[in-house]
Design brief:
Its EC number is 2.1.2.2. GO terms for molecular function: phosphoribosylglycinamide formyltransferase activity. It catalyses: N(1)-(5-phospho-beta-D-ribosyl)glycinamide + (6R)-10-formyltetrahydrofolate = N(2)-formyl-N(1)-(5-phospho-beta-D-ribosyl)glycinamide + (6S)-5,6,7,8-tetrahydrofolate + H(+). This is Phosphoribosylglycinamide formyltransferase. By secondary structure, this protein is α/β, with parallel strands linked by helices. The chain has one domain: Formyl transferase, N-terminal domain (Rossmann fold), CATH 3.40.50. About 35% of the residues lie in helices and about 20% in strands. It has 6 helices and 7 strands; from the N terminus they run βαβαβαβαβαββα. Strands 3-2-1-4-5-6-7 form a 7-stranded mixed beta sheet, with helices on both faces. β1, α1 and β2 form a beta-alpha-beta unit. α1 runs parallel beside α6. It is globular.
């Protein structure tokens, strides 16, 4: 069997998508293993989940660094120490510096709760409702310097119902995220999806 790719996950909160990746990686035939979880918040619940599953964790607050590039240098130091092959952003609520994105380009992916290029940024479910969208979903994409702008790896779609709210859309899209992200990471780890 080929060597599994070493994957680090960056989170800011409960890390439900990270947990979905960890669960997928329990299968010995899955082409990646989650070897570390980093958060910009030491109290992030996802770090507890990672520790409980025997996964290395690290955290650092951006407030402790002089600027974004200095903070990203610390993230890079941690990822390099873990010998990460691939970086997955999973609800990591920081905009990364150009230098960091460039260093990891082609090895860093993100999941975004909309059908990109629609509804970039925050409150995607509110944006979809305000636009009168009839379908919504999530996208796994390559991370490039522009926010939520890299080429799509995979998408999952759901219908938007007349009585949907932010909360109902959030829950239904999250179910798709937890299915889509492990599938997309597997494509990247196997070399089936490449940037450029």
């Amino acid at each position: 069997m080929t060597t599994r790719k070493r994957v680090a996950v960056l989170i800011s909160g409960r890390g439900s998508n990270m947990a979905a990746l960890v669960e997928a990686a329990r299968d010995p035939d899955y082409p990646a293993e989650i070897i570390g979880v980093f958060s910009n918040k030491a109290e992030a619940a996802g770090l507890d989940f990672a520790r409980a599953n025997g996964i290395a964790t690290a955290s650092a607050s951006h407030r402790d660094f002089s600027d974004r590039a200095a903070f990203d240098t610390e993230i890079d130091r941690v990822l390099t120490g873990w010998q990460a092959d691939i970086v997955c952003l999973a609800g990591f609520m920081r905009i990364l510096s150009l230098g960091f994105v460039t260093r990891w380009q082609g090895r860093m992916i993100n999941i975004h709760p909309s059908l990109l290029p629609l509804y970039k940024g925050l409150d995607t479910h509110g944006q979809a409702l305000a636009a009168g969208a009839t379908e919504h979903g999530c996208t796994v994409h390559w991370v490039t310097p522009a926010l939520d702008d890299g080429p799509t790896i995979a998408q999952a779609r759901i219908p938007v119902y007349p009585d949907d709210t932010r909360e109902t859309l959030t829950q239904r899209v999250l179910v798709e995220e937890h299915r889509l992200y492990p599938a997309a990471l597997a494509m990247v780890a196997r070399g089936e999806a490449r940037l450029g």
